[in-house]
Amino acid sequence: MGCSNSSIVHPSAVKQLSTTLSLVTSSSSKEASESQTAAQLEFPSTNNFTGSTPTMDRGEWHQTEITESKKHEKHYTSNTLAIQQNIRLTTSFEDLSNEILYEIFDFLDGCNIYETFSKLNARFECLITNSSHLLKFNFSIVSKTTFAHRLAHIVTPNTHRIVSLSLSNPFIIDCFLDLFSIDFSFIRLEVLSLIGIESERLVYLLTTLTSAPCLHSLSLTVPDWIPDLDCVYRLILRLSSLKYTKLSFERGGKASLAIRTANEQGPTSNIEYLTIDKFVHEDDLIALLSYTPKLRRLSCFNDLFIRLKQPKLSFVSPRLTHVNLYTTDEFEYFETFLLNICFHLQVLRVSHHGMMDILDANRWQQMIENSLPHLKRFELLSDTDLGDDDSYQDYYHTLIEKFTAPFWTERQWFFAHQHYRKFGVRAIFYSIGSCRWNHYALRELQDDDVCPRNDNHLNLARVVTIEGNRAAAHCSIKFPRATELDLTLCGDGEHLSSIADLSRMIPLEQLTRIGFYWEHVGITHLLELLHLTPNVHSLSLLSDQWFGDIRRIFVTEHSIIGNNKIRKVSVDTEDLGLTLEEIQLLLRMCPCVQYLDLKIEEEQCVSIVDFLLLRNITNNNHIPITLMSFRPVPYEMDQKVRSMIDRDQLFCNYSIKNDRGKMYLWC
C-alpha cells in the first residue's frame, strides 16, 4: 500500500513539531561548526586542564580548518534557508517535502524521531521506517524502564540503520551490551562513543568491533584500572576502518606494547587522528606511534614524562603535521621527543606546568629554525610558580620579554601574560591564539600587577572559568560563544563581581552548564544567576553554608525558586555531606532534576534513598529522578539499600552498584 500524502497531523503533536522546526532553524550555524560528521575528521571538544589560563584546545583544531568550517556553514545555511522558504510556502507541516523532512530528522536523536512522528499518520510512519535514512542515538539520562522499551521497540529493529551511537553511563552501557554485540549487524555504524565502560567488558567489545565494517570514529572512557592494556591497544590497532580514536583511561593499566621495528611484517593501523586523555606511559606512546604510519594529528593530555631510549624514531608517520601536548617535563627531555617526531609539523601546541626552562625563547627559535622548517603555527602555554622572591620574578620577565623579538612577531605569533595568587604568586604566559576556541580561564590579578594582559576584546571560547571575586569586574573581553561557566569564589563575597559584569561578558541566556564553587556560597547570587540563565540543564555546587539561606528564601522568593530546567545536579561539601532535609530543599530549588550526584551524611543514606524513591512513585507532579550517585558510603551499603527497596516493593526494575565508596542507583 502506498503512503498517503493527505493525512492530518494529530493535534497532540503540534507542540512537538513546532519545537522541532524551531530547533532546525535556530541550530543550523551551530551544527555547521559542531556537526557529528565533521567531528570524525576533526579533533572534538573535550574537557580542559584544571587550572590553566587559557587552556589549550585539547585537540580542537578549528583554527587551522577555517576554510573547511566555512564550507560546512555554507552548506547548512543553504539547507536552513530552503527549510524556511518551504515553511513560508506551505500551509501545514504536512505539506513539507520528504527531502525537507529528512533534513529535519538529521537534527534529531533516533528515539525522538520515532516517539514524535511515528504515530502521526501513515506517511510519517512510512518515512521513518524507510531503511535508507540513517539514525543517531544518544543515551545518557533515561529511566531503566524507558531505556528497555526503546531498546526493544526502536533500536532492535534498526541496528542496520544506526550511523552514530553514544552511551554515557555504566548502567546504560552494561544494559546495551547485554542485549547487543556491536558487530557486523551494525553494518552502517560509523561513530561509537562509550563514556564509562568498565574494563572487564572492554576486550570483548573491541573483539566484536573488528567485524563492524564502517566504524571510523571510536571514543572510550574507562573509569577503572585496565589489567591488560597491551591487549586493548592491539585490538584497537586492528580496527581496519578506524580513522579517529579518543582514549581516556582514567586509572591507567598494565601495558608493555613492543615498538614495531621498520622490518617487522604484519598489519599497521589506519588511524589518522589520535587523542589520548590521561595515563599513557611514554613507552606506550612511542609504541603506538610505531603502529600508526598514517597518523596526521596527535593530542596527548596526561602528565607526560618522556625519556627516550633511542636517538631517532625512524618509524614516525611522515604525515604527522599537528601535535598538541601537555607536559610537566623538563625542556631537555621534551625537546628530544619533539625533534624525533616533528620534522613535518605545521602546528605545535604545548601546555606546560612546571619550571621556567620552557620559556627559553632562544632555544625555541633555534629548534624551530633548524628542525621544524614547515611550522606555521606555534602556541605555548606556561603556568609557573614564581614564589615571593622579587629576583625570581625579574628573571621571569627577562625570559618572556624575548618572545617579542622579530622572529616571533614576523610570524604573527603573539603572547600575553598575567600574574595571580594561588598558593603563592604564579604567572601564566600564553599564546593569544590558543585561547580562542574552547576554554578560557579568567583569574583575579594581583593588586600590584601592572603587566599588560594584551588580550583582545573578543574570545570564542565555549567554556569560561572565572576565579576570584573581582576577576570579572574590569574585564573587557567578551565571550559570545560561551555555553559553560565555572565560578570559583572565596571568602564572604566581599567585592564580588556583579551579575552585570557577567552579562556584559557572556550571553547568559545561552549557558547550558554552571559550576558554582564557593566556600561560603551566597545563595542569593546563585539564584539571581539561575534566574537569568533559563537554558542551564547542569549545575555543580561546592559549598557548605548555604542551605540556611535557602530556607529563608523559600518564604519570600517563590518566583525564583524552581523556575529552571536543570536536569543534572552535583553537590560536594567540605564537611560531612548533605542531610535529608537539605536534599529536600535542593529538590525544591531544582524540581526538574533527573540525575543527582551528592556527597551525603553516611548514616542517612538509607533514609535519603527511601525518600527519593518514594518521591518518584507518589508525586506525579515531579519529574522522576532516574540516576543517583552518593558518596561516601561503606561497601555493604548497596546491600542495605537493595533490601530496603525489595522489602518495601518500591521498584521491581532497578540496578545498584558500589564502586570505590560511591554508590550508584538506576531506576
UniProtKB/TrEMBL annotation:
Q: Taking every annotated instance into account, which residue ranges of this chain make up the domain F-box?
A: 90-137
Stretches the record annotates as Disordered? 34-58
Q: Which residue windows does the record flag with biased composition (Polar residues)?
A: 43-55
Q: Give the SUPFAM superfamilies listed for this entry.
A: RNI-like
Protein name according to UniProt:
F-box domain-containing protein
